[in-house]
Amino acid sequence: MIRFENITKVLGGKTVLDNISFEVNEGETFVIVGLSGAGKSVTLKHMIRLMLPDNGSIVVDGEAIDNLGRSALEAVRSKFGVLFQSAALLQWMSVHDNVALPLREHTKMAEEEIGRLVAEKLHLLNLSDAGDKFPADLSGGMQKRVGLARAIIMNPKIVLYDEPTSGLDPVTSRRIDNLIVDMRKELGITSVVVTHDLHSALSIGSRIMMLHDGQIVENAPPEEFICSKDKTVQSFLESQYITKKGKWETGLSHE
Amino acid sequence: MRYPAHSVRRFGNQVLQLMHDTGHALFMLLESIWFIRYVFTKRSRAETALQMFTTGIKSLAVITVVALFTGMILALQTGLELRRYGQEVYIGSAVAVSMIREMGPFMTGLIIAASVGSAIAAQIGTMVVSEEISALEVMSINPNRFLVMPRLVALVVMMPILTVYTNILGIMGGGLVGATQLGVSLQAYMDNATQFATNKDLYVGLFKAIIFGAVITTVSCHQGFMTSEGAVGVGKATRRSVIISFLIILVLGYMITRLFYV
Question: How far is CA B184 from CA A58, A192, B52, B76, in A?
Answer without folding.
Answer: 77, 78, 38, 12
